[in-house]
Amino acid sequence: MPVSADRARELALALGDASEAPHFHRVAFRTPRKTFATLDAKARDLNLMFSQDLRDFYCDLAPHAFRPVPGGWGRMGATRCDLEAVDEATLVPALEAAHRLAAPKARMR
């Protein structure tokens, strides 16, 4: 079942220390350290800020729902998720993985 833009927003904001901020024509979801996803509610897509390995994993896992963002961002790992084609069971771990990458680094004592 597709994920609505409102539901994607709820899922992103449910992650620890996540906040929302405007980002050009999109909405950015970020940790205190950096952005982990951006949402375009009108286009019904969510860009996830993955590593290259995670990009490849999700694009292989669900090629109908995930593909690299065109250009340089995609080469660095940014991945477009089509909310019309993804189910919540696939989206949640993808959001969690992007969120973990953006989490503040643990301090060494």
CATH topology: Aspartate Aminotransferase, domain 1
CATH class: Alpha Beta
Tell me the major beta sheet. 6 strands, antiparallel
Terminal residue distance: 46 Å
Structural class, by secondary structure, is alpha+beta
Q: Please state the second-level CATH architecture.
A: Alpha-Beta Complex
Give structural attributes.
109 residues, globular, six-stranded antiparallel sheet, 4 helices, Aspartate Aminotransferase, domain 1, single chain, alpha+beta
Would you kindly provide a brief summary of this structure?
The chain is of the alpha+beta class and 109 residues long. The chain has helices spanning 5-13, 52-61, 72-76, 88-102, and strands at residues 19-23, 26-30, 35-40, 45-49, 66-68, 78-82.
SSE layout and pairings?
Blueprint: H1 5-13, E1 19-23, E2 26-30, E3 35-40, E4 45-49, H2 52-61, E5 66-68, H3 72-76, E6 78-82, H4 88-102
Antiparallel strand pairs: 1-2, 2-3, 3-4, 4-6, 5-6
